[in-house]
TrEMBL record:
Family recorded in the similarity comment: Belongs to the Maf family. YhdE subfamily.
Coiled-coil annotated spans: none
Native organism: Skermanella aerolata
Catalytically driven reaction(s): UTP + H2O = UMP + diphosphate + H(+); dTTP + H2O = dTMP + diphosphate + H(+)
Protein name: dTTP/UTP pyrophosphatase
UniProtKB keywords: Cytoplasm, Hydrolase, Nucleotide metabolism
GO cellular component: cytoplasm
A GO term, aspect molecular function: dTTP diphosphatase activity
NCBIfam families attached to this UniProt entry: maf (TIGR00172)
Function: Nucleoside triphosphate pyrophosphatase that hydrolyzes dTTP and UTP. May have a dual role in cell division arrest and in preventing the incorporation of modified nucleotides into cellular nucleic acids.
Major localization class: cytoplasm
Amino acid sequence: MTVPAPSPLVLASASPRRLDLLRQIGIEPAGIDPADLDETPHRDELPSQHAARLAAEKADAVASRHAGSFVLAADTVVACGRRILPKAETEAQARTCLKLLSGRRHRVYGGVVLVLPDGRRLDRTVQTAVTFKVLSHEETEGYIASGEWLGKAGGYAIQGRAAALIRWIGGSYSNVVGLPLFEVSNMLYGAGFVSSARFISADG
């Protein structure tokens, strides 16, 4: 009896961090196809709603181009209260983000959607709390000079030099990096893409 080949997995993101995180748990996507959407928040949209909506829109856009595949999409939102912080593109934006984050707790929301080959969807929204130390002028300028903030939600990358500035984290670390691995692995297992043993097997 011939066993049908599993459907391929397409990652709906060009983020090298998300790809690295998937590889960390032994998952290598068959393809990478970013959705390239307008990520402007809607009026009065809460940070968790924004993350969930963008993940769903990315998933739908990419799934329409890959019939019969698994499609994994995600979005990461850094928020101070109800305020959604930008993906910093200028030093001024990064300084504004770091000033807001300094000495206070903020939230990182990860929206994740998995579209199955039959069109069904699984979705999760994950929340992680993060507290920065009170940043000195020298620490802020040193981090700005590193350039790590460029294109990062909230103007920092927890997996880089910003780790030295973070006093406490509550919840999923990988969610702050860009993909909540516990939830993603359970979604892939529940959808039948992989067996639970694959995530801990050296053979992949």
